[in-house]
Amino acid sequence: ALEPLDRENSIWVLQGGPSSGRRRLARWIARRSGSGLLEVSQPRSEQPWVGPLATLLSTIPLVSLEIPSGSRLTWNPPAGYSGPVIVRQTGSGTLECGFGVCRLELGIPDRLERRSHWISVLGHPPSEDLLALRIARGAIHSPMGIHADSQNQIRRFRRELSDSGRHLLEGVARPMAALATSQRLELGPVATSEFAALVSRCRHRETLAETLPAAFGHGGTGVRALFKGVSGTGKTLAARHLASALGMPLWRVDLSSVVSKWIGETEKNLERAFQAAESLDIILLLDEGDALLANRTSVGSSTDRYANLETNFLLQRLESFEGILVATTNAPERIDSAFLRRFDVVVEFPLPEPPERLRLWNMHLPEGHQVPMVRLEELARRCELSGGHIRNAALHATLLSLEHNTALSDQQILESVRREFRRAGLSCPHF
Description:
By secondary structure, the chain is of the alpha/beta class. It is built from 19 helices and 13 strands. It has helices spanning 22-32, 42-45, 50-57, 111-122, 128-131, 137-140, 151-164, 166-169, 189-203, 205-211, 235-246, 255-258, 265-280, 302-320, 337-342, 354-364, 373-382, 387-404, 410-424; strands at residues 11-16, 36-41, 59-66, 72-74, 85-90, 94-96, 101-106, 173-175, 223-228, 250-253, 283-286, 324-329, 345-348.
């Protein structure tokens, strides 16, 4: 239970992400202490009039501070004011001041708390599907709302929630298009089994965390998956299938925008992405993530030191991440071993075997093509191509057929296969 703020120079730090309920809790604390709130930003909190105004109005200053992870901020309460202060902190950095600090971290509410919030919104207990949405308090009470606990309403709510959260991810991540029904995932038996285990792990992640004994240590609900394999083996497509299986939006982190040459900006951008993913219950995709997960280097210059600081931040943030993250790589040897230990599931995407290659050829060729099945079986058997290469070859062959206004022929598919081998720098079998 929270005690009223009747101590002088006491500071309450409410730390959390977007829509975590910090402002709502601050109002409740102030009312319990018999006061109102005077909300000010960090620059204005240093103005000389803030303290006297808070005293005159018998209000408690609510100051918003942004402290990125790994940073320290030395801050003093408003001058001319001797009462308690409430700080609404964004980021997991450290606040340093000369007074006693009581810190409350407002993460994603657990199942029991979410149930209470949904009852206050709906007027009755939510369904299991609705309760499974691991979203922030503010999202549950958002104006878009849910008025009927049905699958259609839940899907609509998810779409609107994702759309409303675009400003949180603007400049750091982009939404991936919904999966088309024709985009099937062709994997070998081992990869199929591992992928199914990942879907199950994500689906039951909260129940799993509640069920495991304390001996398991960290009982968080985050799931971190690594998809590794050569280009074109279906890693990004598998991430889209994962999102479709879970009914969750998928956002790809824009590495070109996230990584910055300015000190601390990369960590700040990544923190934005992680916090938004947690509060909106979306899946984050680090495509070609080895650019961020690379091995730490020996410190020979200040550049190396700051690069290692970014790596250390990402290691800690992955450990505390409460959402679902998928990283893909075609160069797993470049990934720091410390990152590899933090991935809960590693799925290897090998080159497809002949049966999978034959299915891929049949999937990607247009209806009405005139390529004999014997030829497709030969291509599947003799050409060790990835799914991406098969897709490209089928695309080029279809383009040739359209250009000549004919049905796709055997000669056109062979020409496209030879072209794909040349592009890959490989020797094409003789046909």
